[in-house]
Every structure is written in C-alpha cells, then in structure tokens.
Write a structure and sequence with these properties.
- With 320 residues, the chain is mainly β.
- It has a domain of 164 residues: Immunoglobulin-like (Sandwich), CATH 2.60.40.
- Helix content is 11%, strand content 31%.
- The chain is built from 4 helices and 16 strands.
- The strands form 4 sheets. Strands 9, 10, 11, 12, 13, 14, 15 and 16 form an 8-stranded mixed sheet that branches.
- A hairpin with a 2-residue loop joins strand 9 and strand 10.
- Helix 2 runs antiparallel to helix 4.
- The protein is elongated, with a radius of gyration of 27 Å.
C-alpha cells in the first residue's frame, strides 16, 4: 500500500518524547475515515502498509555497523491499527528483536506489557486496559530490523564498474556509458558499490561524465595522474540548433525536452541515446579516447542541460 491508498497520510520525524527518548523517531499516520470515501484499504494478515527509504551517512566512522530500526511506544495509542468503524483497536501481541537467522523464525521475543513507558517492549497494560467495556485486542506482531552500513573496503573498487574484480576494462566503460542513458537501473550487482567504483580519479565524487572520459583514457593508456587534472571553464554556443564548444572535450551528456532527433557532426565520436517518456538523453563520447572541439551536434527541441568532460577527464564548468 502507498500514501495514495489512504484519504489522509502523513509523517512526522524528530519527535521529542522527553527523558529516555531515542533519536530519529518517526511517526506515521494513515486514515481512511470518510464514509463512502474513495479509499478504504482492507488488509488482513501479513501486508505492506508503507515503505521507508533510509538515507545512510557516508561518514566512514560508521562503516561496517548495524544500525537498529525499532518500534517505540510512548502510550497505548502508538503503533496501533483500527478497523473501519473505529470501535476495534488492535495493539501489540508480540515484539521480535534481533537477528532472525540466529533466533529463528522471527528473532527474540521482547514483549513486556508491564515494563512501563517509554518502551521498546510493546503496548503496556497500564493504560491500554483501563476501560472495562471497550478494550483493545492484542493480535499485532512487530518485527524490529536494522540498516547495515557497508564496509568501505568492499565497495572501493575504483574503475571496476561491473565489479568483476578486473578494474579499468572496456566492459567497465561500456557499462558506465549506459548509466548516463538509462540511469542507475544498469547497476544490477551492487548499486552502492558500482557508484563508488565510478570515482576513477580518486577525488571523492562519482557518476560524472568527466570520470567516464578519464576511465577511457586509463583503458587506452593515455591517462594523466589525477593530481595533474584540474577543472576547466568552457564556452558553449547554440546557433540554429547546432552545439559548439571552444575547448577540447572528451564527452558530453545533453538532455533535451521531449522525444527529439539529433545529428552527430564529428565523425571521431559516437553517440548513445534514449527517450524516457519525458526527455531525450544523448551521450557523445569515444571508446578510442578521441576528443572534439567546435560544432559537434545538431539537436532539435529545448535543451534542459549539458554536461562535459574535458579531453583528459577534467570536470568542466560550461557557460552558454
């Protein structure tokens, strides 16, 4: 289920619960309350209510660590489910924590209804059963989890874009070039590791057209030492749909609005292109390490962006 399956869906993070409050609290609220409204989710058993995406730090002091993600209770209203009438409240029956492989099938059961709030141990009897007539039902299982932060050594394979343990080969350049046209979906082995491997000039940045050029220069044996490569500025002109640049370039990525046609004007280069339903992406490059200057492409449509990599693999600040 997604946010669109509810009449009201929101989240709040950074909630302060006072003493003994853990960091990074996130509260989700989803309601389908309107009578005969458009959305009335009916879920039973094991189902996916929502998906959380975690942005993991790139601070290497956290590498190789397992960061716990746990359910937390501050009162009986937390982590509850209700039926459509609002008369039946469903609360925690069991809470599982820890490694499911070490403690199958679900980890260690840590439910403790008499611990007191705030707690990781489920809804408490102290405030959930104060009404002798209208009482909640304990029938919901909670499984805690974690986010594993990868060890840096396992993804620092610079130049090995396809992660086959052979860095700086032609297959790496082909896969890297496909990324600029088709996006991150081409990295099917280990997305984070393959992104990290694109930092071929060791400057800490990734996924740049300039790095594609530098990778190709390494493959062809023409690469300069990274410390000898500095960013440059180039002027780009667009005249009668013809693109021209005043510095020698090794590659360019042009993004054009709509499904557009184009013509390559420099025979030393090749192109890759695709239309994603909204924009046309055009990559001008050379697996032989060739470069271009002056008029290089005639393209129809409104140009959204242009990115260059210089002939020796330097990043380019372009002025149109």
């Amino acid at each position: 289920m997604t946010a669109n399956d509810w009449e009201y869906f929101t989240y709040r993070y950074g909630y302060d619960c006072g003493i003994n409050c853990p960091s990074g609290l996130l509260r989700l609220t989803a309601i389908a309350e309107t009578n005969n409204g458009p959305y009335h989710p009916t879920e039973a058993g094991v189902s996916e209510l929502t998906v959380l995406d975690f942005l993991v730090t790139n601070d290497r002091t956290f590498e190789c660590q397992e960061i716990p993600i746990r359910f937390f209770w501050m009162d009986c209203d937390d982590n509850t489910l209700s039926d459509w009438t609002g008369n039946e409240l469903h609360i925690s029956e069991v809470v599982f924590d820890g490694d499911q492989d070490l403690f199958p099938p679900n980890g260690v059961e840590i439910q403790n209804p008499n611990y007191g709030y705030p707690t990781y141990f489920g809804a408490q009897n102290s405030d959930c059963f104060t009404d002798p007539v209208k009482q909640p039902t304990r029938d919901v299982s909670f499984n805690n989890g974690s986010v594993s932060i990868v060890c840096a050594d396992s993804i620092d394979s610079r130049g090995d874009i396809n992660l086959n343990s052979v860095a700086n080969e032609i297959a790496d350049a082909v896969l890297f070039s496909n990324y600029f046209i088709y996006g991150l979906g081409v990295f099917t082995i280990n997305t984070e590791g393959q992104i990290a491997a694109s930092d071929v000039n060791t400057d800490g940045l990734t996924l740049s057209v300039a790095y594609l050029v530098y990778l190709i220069q390494i493959i062809n044996g023409n690469a300069k030492p990274p410390e000898n490569i500095t960013p440059i500025t180039a002027n780009v002109s667009i005249n009668s749909r013809i693109l021209s640049v005043d510095k020698e370039m090794g590659a360019s990525l042009i993004v054009v609005e709509g499904n557009q046609t184009f013509e390559l004007l420099n025979t030393d280069m090749i192109t890759l292109s695709s239309f994603d339903g909204t924009t046309t992406r055009i990559l001008v490059y050379s697996l032989e390490g060739n470069s271009f200057i002056g008029n290089f492409l005639r393209v129809n449509g409104n140009i959204i962006s242009i990115e260059f990599g210089s002939a020796d693999g330097a990043t380019v600040v372009s002025q149109i």
